[in-house]
């Protein structure tokens, strides 16, 4: 029996772990995006939370990006805007969260998943965690996740990965560009490092960490509006004939 999608959160010793799951390679339909945004916001305002670990379930992909089933179901620009704004809400929730967020990347990372990895304050991965921005090959483009990825890895690296949308970039490439802070040879080593850091942060000064986060994200105060504008671009493009055919061809594989 296939387990239904979920977003779960639990706190232990000041560490709040938020985990999401979808049977289609941890893809991101609107419901998962909405729940992720709400859980991140709640943890950010929860006095019991000192640090957040953001992860997905399973041993396959960390995240395969937008849900193709939902992309196919969009028939109006307003629906497209609403769907892609879900990615904007997650990124902005991570950006505005007063707690530091550690992302655990255990596998391949596509599209919106790369955006989540970039929006985390500290991202730790394993060597099989390749990355790809496949949006252009679908006739869309990484508009919503673009600002947060560009902020993390720079304009040049972002343009490279955005333009060559069919090429997987290695985890080593992602670490060299700054997307990943650490790279480990095994899940066990990765988790050991994550919980070592999380425990240190759970015993650090919350006020100091909140002030540090303000500094880290300085200059992004306009992103509530910017990312919504980017969502509108994607919401319009997803209705194009090119994108409809591209999504249908992908689903037919």
Describe the structure.
This protein is of the alpha/beta class. It has a single domain (6-190), classed as 2-enoyl-CoA Hydratase, Chain A, domain 1, CATH 3.90.226.10. Helices cover 50% and strands 15% of the residues. The chain is built from 11 helices and 8 strands. The strands form 2 sheets. A 6-stranded mixed beta sheet has the order 1-2-3-4-6-8, sandwiched between helices. It has a two-stranded parallel sheet with strand order 5-7. The mean pLDDT is 96.
What is the number of beta strands? 8
Beta content comes to 5-15%
Outline the low-pLDDT stretches. none
Broad CATH class: Alpha Beta
- Helix and strand sequence: EEHEHHEEHEEHHHEHHHH
Largest sheet: 6 strands, mixed
Q: What would CATH call the architecture?
A: Alpha-Beta Complex
Total discrete domains: 1
CATH fold annotation: 2-enoyl-CoA Hydratase, Chain A, domain 1
The CATH homologous superfamily name equals 2-enoyl-CoA Hydratase, Chain A, domain 1
**How many helical elements?**
11
Numbering strands along the chain, what is their spatial order in the largest sheet? 1-2-3-4-6-8
Helix content: 40-55%
Q: What is the average per-residue confidence, as pLDDT, rounded to a whole number?
A: 96
The best one-word shape is globular
* CA radius of gyration: 17 Å
- Structural class of the secondary elements? alpha/beta
In whole angstroms, how far apart are the ends?
A: 24 Å
Topology:
Layout: E1 6-12, E2 15-21, H1 30-45, E3 51-56, H2 68-73, H3 77-96, E4 101-105, E5 109-110, H4 112-119, E6 122-126, E7 131-132, H5 146-153, H6 155-163, H7 171-177, E8 182-184, H8 187-202, H9 206-216, H10 223-237, H11 241-251
Parallel strand pairs: 2-3, 3-4, 4-6, 5-7, 6-8
Antiparallel strand pairs: 1-2
